Amino acid sequence: MIVVLLGYMGSGKSLIGKKLAQTLGCDFVDLDSHISDKINLSISEIFSQKGEIFFRKQEALLLNELLNAKKPMVLATGGGTPCYGNNMLDITESSGVQSIYLKTSVQELVTRLFPEKDQRPLIAHLDSKEVLDDFIRKHLFDRNPYYMQANYKINTDGKAPQEIVREIVVQLF
């Protein structure tokens, strides 16, 4: 089985993904890291040197490559991955794939993301929690129709990572 984690940046896809993969005894793949490794550039370098369209094409190509490999894994997508091209359709229609939306409130996302915003190119330019809050609200409004297509929705607010992993395991099995 391939478990695909979806959700906004800061929702815990990488952290939960690593712990879930360990629990399930399979590999963990972070799609952004996978893209970065294949192209030999960081995500921010890809965006600045090659542009978003190039990035999104590589993202779709490598997502499909991983989904078609049929190798058991936990795959953490980028926050925008499900929203571009046919990516969400590819995730939902691939056999042996279960998708999980890590649903995190705007307030929780602001709390998690503001201290680390300088490491995240998409939000590095936002200079206050209020502006970040507005930015996240707009993005979630646009992205929720995609995220909500996931097989399972797990609320992450106020939960320890191991508790979230247990909830996912219960849903899957």
Portion in strands: 5-15%
According to CATH, what is the class?
Alpha Beta
Second rung of CATH, namely the architecture: 3-Layer(aba) Sandwich
Q: Mind telling me the C-alpha Rg?
A: 15 Å
Task: Please tally the β strands and state the result.
Answer: 5
Name the poorly predicted regions.
none
Mind describing the biggest β-sheet? 5 strands, parallel
The count of domains is 1
SSE pattern: EHEHHHEHEHHEH
Question: What descriptors fit this protein?
Answer:
alpha/beta; five-stranded parallel β-sheet; single chain; 14% strand; 173 residues
Question: If you had to describe this structure to a student in words, what would you say it looks like?
Answer:
The chain has 173 residues and is an alpha/beta fold. It has helices at residues 13-24, 31-39, 43-50, 52-69, 87-93, 106-113, 129-147, 161-172, and strands spanning 2-6, 27-30, 73-76, 97-103, 152-155. The protein has a single domain (2-165), classed as Rossmann fold (3-Layer(aba) Sandwich), CATH 3.40.50.300. The protein is built from eight helices and five strands. A five-stranded parallel beta sheet has the order 2-3-1-4-5, sandwiched between helices. The longest helix has 19 residues, at 129-147. The model has no long low-confidence stretch (mean pLDDT 95).
